[in-house]
Amino acid sequence: MQIFLPIAEVSVNLFLLLGAGTLVGVLSGMFGVGGGFLITPLLFFMGISPAVAVATGANQIVASSFSGLLAHLRRKTVDLQMGVVLLIGGLVGAALGVMLFNYLRSLGQVDLLVRLCYVVFLGIIGTLMFIESLNAIRNTRKGRKAKRHKHNWIHGLPLKMRFRTSGLYISVIPPLLVGLAVGVLAAVMGVGGGFIMVPAMIYLLGMPTKVVIGTSLFQIIFVTAFTTMLHAVTNQTVDMPLAVLLLLGGVVGAQIGTVIGLRMKAEQLRILLALLVMLVCAKLGLELVLQPNELFSIAGVGGA
Amino acid sequence: MMRWLFLFVLMALPALAEEEVVLGLSHDRVSITADFNGSEILIFGAIKRETEIPEGPPLQVIVSLAGPSREETVRRKERRFGIWVNTESVVVDAAPSFYAVATSAPWNETITQVEDLRYRISILRAIRSVGAPMSVMNSQSFSDAIIRIRKKNGLYQLLENTVAVDQQTLFRTSIEMPANLTEGAYQTRIFLTREGRVINQFETVIDVQKVGLERWLFSLSRSNPMAYGLLSLTIAILAGWGASTAFRMLRNG
Description:
The structure holds two protein chains of two kinds. By secondary structure, chain A is mostly helical. Chain A has ten helices and five strands; from the N terminus they run ββαααααββαααααβ.
């Protein structure tokens, strides 16, 4: 059954769409990731223009993070102070990101920008994750454990602030910058940015693991909501039915994924995810490098 | 005297009302709904005439269906630093979003080039490109690219020999419209030709519109993007939260 998407102005198979949502949901349930960085490329592969894919991806992330944030708020595993600092950076970053996006759109290069960002980030993250989980597998065999708290250059910066929930006394500059970077990524790539923020919070800021997920969800929800609004107002590229369909598939998939995830070992899961990320990266990268069949393109929805 | 006057009038109004189109359409509006999967339009009609069928080569019929025209930006990719990047671009002044032309015989037998130029019937003539920037070489290739890309997507169609003409009086054809249609007034033109010359022309409009929820969402996103953005956030949050709550309740019995 085909369904016509009013903003994307294409008709897509309903079951393909629900299936894609479910697949990403399964993966996000299995690996505990948001899945935004998988949904957006999947939408490209379906022939939805990058401008619509990014804006709709952001909308979908707001919704899929919502119930997670509620659960963390109930368990009090959200550092609201840190969340607000990250959020301020994030809002500024999102605004800058959308400005960059619209500027490149007017030049006809937004498609390239989004794809390049995906190739670079998926490539780096996939490779790092792959190496790390290989090391982790080796280390668990030897019985070693990773250390968390480290004294580094971050503790020398001014504007220090006490974060009670995380038990930290650090400068607000690093969290602001982390938030900013994540905001730009949210606007340009239509992702939540958890895959950048979570490692940064653990290794760079030294936050305790138990508050990391809740706090990042807090930041992600507001930043992606802001991004959605910016895209909706400036480009009119948010496709509501598309977001809802992906979401419904995603919620069902996440439940299945969680069950599968509980039955597998963490290191094996991470290697699988790393391989998947590298695969998507390779596919997007090849499309940039190989000569396309059609060298000409007509500027479509959202000018991409 | 009277006979001369009669002849004079006949010569002054060549072909006027001699052979005229009477048209029927299977439907004069196409509604793009949520499950829109393209549409087939049946165009049929008759040729009304007061006189005998003229001698000579038979009457030919051309049917054209054109979607709304607009300015299009066409870009060309080139390899830069090892990757394919959009470089040159040309703005084509007006290109129809959809264009189908059906004829009753091979193209060259139905109409001459001069008449095509005058009435802008063939796909190539339907696109108007005044001038590309001086920096761009070979700007014709950009108009050709529009035709090639849209032909591939079923948006531009040249359908030779698909108009059936019976007894030089009845004609019918059907045109497939794909799912990826743009909204607007689709100009439908019927031409009657003899020996490549247009002897009568008829025009009407088929309305293509998004309807129902699709229309409402689309127009809201354009007229009040702020409200649309807030609405899509709210609906998405409610849907996501509702579905996960439902799941949790299911699991907990």
